[in-house]
Amino acid sequence: MRSKKDSLDIEHISSVMGKELKDTSPETLKLFDFAIQSIQKRISYCKYHLSEFNTHSTPVALLKDRLDPQTDDELSIRILYEANAFGFISNLHALVDSLPFILNIIFNTREIDNTGIGWNPRFINGYRDFTFFSQLENFQKNNLFVKLKGLTNTSKHKYLTRLKNDFKKISFESISYREKKEEKLIADVDAEQFMIDSYNTLIPELIWTINLIIEAKKNSRTETLR
Fold this sequence. Notes:
The chain is mainly alpha-helical. The protein has one domain (9-222). Helices cover 60% and strands 10% of the residues. It contains 9 helices and 3 strands. It has helices spanning 10-20, 26-55, 59-67, 77-97, 99-107, 121-124, 133-141, 143-157, 191-218; strands at residues 163-165, 170-179, 182-190. A 3-stranded antiparallel β-sheet has the order 1-2-3. A hairpin with a 4-residue loop joins strand 1 (163-165) and strand 2.
């Protein structure tokens, strides 16, 4: 059973936005529904990857990984926990990155496929006069979001961040990220704890932000877009 902290009321959102977006094209409304449904699916994917990561990183599994890492026919223990760690990271990042896309559909500020839509100052600052703007700023500055973005960008565009097995736990050897225009580096980050903290913090924040945006759309007659 899903909790309110990690699930969207899709039926309610679709009903509300069906009325609020009545003047948009059916195709745009369909894209909005796809985006909202995708968020809930990605939340489930994150749960799955975390569960599988835990299954393949037990003390017994970690010991076997270190002492007998080779297998003949099956995937190695390392491949299993690595694949699920990066599957979790990739899905959570994609989930968070979809928020600007949803925001743009709701307020119809740019073309659907505009490459400027994203977590960048030029796009986000366009909503400075809205009640949810401070939440967008806070989300961007969230330390876990910044580290998640750095970890994902490194793994996606450069190389897979190494995971270290010390017999007791799995750790990211290092996470490189930018904070206030400075390059930061932290070492030996507990992978399971990082994933749990990211899930328990970023997903509720994302859901709350979406609800704030939808509420602002309902009250948009009194708000203006820069």
